[in-house]
TrEMBL record, chains A, B:
PANTHER family: HELIX-TURN-HELIX TRANSCRIPTIONAL REGULATOR, ICLR FAMILY, HTH-TYPE TRANSCRIPTIONAL REPRESSOR ALLR. Residues 66-247 form the IclR-ED domain. Gene3D superfamilies: 3.30.450.40, Winged helix-like DNA-binding domain superfamily/Winged helix DNA-binding domain (1.10.10.10). It holds the Pfam family IclR_C. This is Transcriptional regulator, IclR family. It comes from Amphibacillus marinus. One of its GO terms (molecular function) is DNA-binding transcription factor activity. Keywords: DNA-binding, Transcription, Transcription regulation. GO terms for biological process: negative regulation of DNA-templated transcription. Residues 3-65 form the HTH iclR-type domain.
Length: 261, 261
DNA sequence: AACTATTGGTTCGATTATAGAACCGGAAGG
DNA sequence: CCTTCCGGTTCTATAATCGAACCAATAGTT
C-alpha cells in the first residue's frame, strides 16, 4: 500500500518538464483536475523544502535546486561522473559524434547522460526521455539482451500500442537475436527524426543488461561512415566499462515486473 | 500550511546522501524515530514513482533515476549547460584550476556545479553541500553583495552558532564592504581544509546577487600564484555571464526570509 | 469608475487517509 | 532450537486531509 497524499504530491512534481517548466497554482490544479486548495498545500510543502521554487516576480512555481543536490548523489551511486563519463568522452573524441548513455529503468529505457560532440546536433533536450524498449537502437539493444521471458511482455505491450517497429513477433524476435549475437544495434530515425544511432549493451556484475551506450548523429553522416567499424570501437569500450562496473557492484535498475505475472 | 505527510516523506528523501546513499527500512525508521510502518509506506510510494530504487540483492533503498530526469529540467531552467557551463570551462582552462558554481538558495550557499581541472584535487564530493554565507570566499562574496538589511540577520545567525570567522560584527562588516568594493573575495581553508578559493559574484536581471563563481585549488598553489590577476580574469567572466543571464530572465533563487521579520 | 474574471491564498467542519501496536514469515547467529 | 534481527502486512482509533466558500489583489472590459 502506498500513500495517496504523497502520490498526489509526486504527480504534481512530474508536471514540471523541459517543455513546461513553470506552473501557476490554478493552472496546475485545473490540469490535474484537483482542488486548488490541496495543490496549494502541496506546492508550499515542496517550496518550503526546496524541491520547488516560487518565482517572486511571476508568482509561478518551478523545480528547485534540491534536485541538483540529490541528482548528484545518484550520479555518485551510479559512478557516472567517475567511471562512465570519462569513457563516454573518449568515445566521443574517437567518433566525433555525440554519445548517449541509456539506462534500463522499470521496463523502459531512459536517456540518462549525453556527451555532446562539437558538431551541430544537440540532444540535451532528450535527457530524461523515457520510451519503450522496442524503439530505437539504444533501447532495442537492451531488449535484445534481456532474458527471453521478459522480452515477451514488452513486445506484447508494443503490439497493444500498435508500434510500427513490430510487424510480426517472429520477425522482430529474429532481429533481436541477431542484435544480441553481433553485440550491437543500428537504427535511423526511430526515436528522433533524421537521427541515427549505433548502440552496444552494458552489463552489471551479474551479467544482466543495465543499459547501453550509443553513438548518435545525423542519419546521413552515420550512413556514409563505416557503421561496423564504429560499432566495433563502441563494443570494445562497452565491454571495458561493464568489466569496471561489475567490480563496483552496480545493480541493474530494473523492477521485476514480469516475474510477478 | 503545509502537508505533514509530504513533509515526513521529504525528510526521508533527505536522508540519502553521498556519505550514506543506501538505507534499510528499519535502519531508516530508527534514525528518524518514526514507526517503520509509515516509513515503509512512504518508501514504497517513492519506489513506485521512481524516486527511490530498491536494490533487489541487498533489499536496501537508494535514490532513483527520477532525480537525474528532474535535475535536467532544473539545469535547463538555470541555463547551466547552455550558458554557465561553457564559461566555467573557459575559466578552468585559463586558470588551470577547478571552477565552482555556488548558488544562493534560501539564506545559504549551495555548491551547484564543478568543472574539474586536470590536476589532483577533486571536489565532486562537495556538490550539493550547503553552508551559511559567512564562511568561505564563494559564500562571503555573495553575502557582501546582499542588501544590508539581509546581512544583519545572517551575521546574527553566525554569532549565535559561534562561527570563528566572525570575531566582531563591525570588523566583519568592514571586510564585507571591502569585498563588495573590490569585486572579489579570497579565503583559504575556511570551508575545505587546505583548499583556497578566489570568488566573484553573479547577478540576475535585477542586479541581485544570485551566486558566485570561484577558482579553487590547493592553498599553496593559489598563494604562490598571482591572486589579483586570477581575480581580474574571474571578474571579467562573471560580468559577462551576469550580462547574458540578465537577458534570459533568471531570477535570484532566494526566499525573502528577512523581509518577513 | 464600476463590473467581471482572473489570480494566489485562507478558513473550517465533514470525511477519509494515516499512524502505529501487534502481527507474520524468513534469515542470521548463538 | 531459541532469539533477534530483518522486510512487510493488518486493522482501527485518531489525526490529517479535502474542498466549498471565502478574501484580497490584479487585469481586462465596458
Amino acid at each position: 500500500m502506498s500513500s495517496k497524499t504523497v502520490m498526489k504530491a509526486l504527480n504534481i512534481l512530474e508536471m514540471f518538464s523541459i517543455h513546461k517548466p513553470c506552473w501557476g497554482l490554478r493552472e496546475l490544479a485545473n490540469e490535474l483536475e484537483m482542488s486548488h486548495t490541496i495543490v496549494h498545500r502541496l506546492l508550499t510543502t515542496f517550496t518550503e523544502k526546496g524541491y520547488l521554487f516560487k518565482n517572486p516576480d511571476t508568482q509561478k512555481y518551478e523545480l528547485g535546486i534540491k534536485f541538483l543536490e540529490l541528482s548528484n548523489v545518484v550520479e555518485e551511486n551510479l559512478k557516472i561522473s567517475e567511471i562512465i563519463h570519462p569513457i563516454m568522452k573518449k568515445v566521443a573524441l574517437e567518433s566525433g559524434e555525440s554519445i548517449v548513455l541509456t539506462l534500463l529503468d522499470q521496463d523502459e529505457g531512459v536517456f540518462m547522460k549525453i556527451v555532446e560532440s562539437d558538431r551541430q546536433v544537440r540532444f540535451a533536450e532528450s535527457i530524461g526521455k523515457r520510451s519503450p524498449l522496442y524503439k530505437g537502437a539504444s533501447h532495442k539493444v537492451i531488449l535484445a539482451n534481456l532474458p527471453e521471458d521478459h522480452q515477451g511482455g514488452i513486445i506484447q505491450q508494443g503490439i497493444d500500442s500498435k508500434a510500427e517497429e513490430i510487424e510480426s513477433v517472429s520477425v522482430f524476435l529474429q532481429r533481436l537475436a541477431i542484435i544480441k549475437q553481433q553485440g550491437w544495434a543500428y537504427t535511423s530515425g526511430e526515436t528522433i527524426h533524421e537521427v541515427g544511432a549505433i548502440s552496444a549493451p552494458l552489463f552489471d556484475y551479474q551479467n544482466q543488461v543495465l543499459g547501453s551506450l550509443s553513438v548518435a548523429g545525423p542519419a546521413y553522416r552515420l550512413e556514409e561512415s563505416n557503421i561496423e567499424m564504429t560499432a566495433t570501437i563502441l563494443m570494445k569500450y562497452c565491454l571495458e566499462l561493464s568489466a569496471v562496473l561489475s567490480k563496483v557492484v552496480f545493480p541493474t535498475r530494473r523492477n521485476y515486473l514480469f516475474e510477478k505475472l
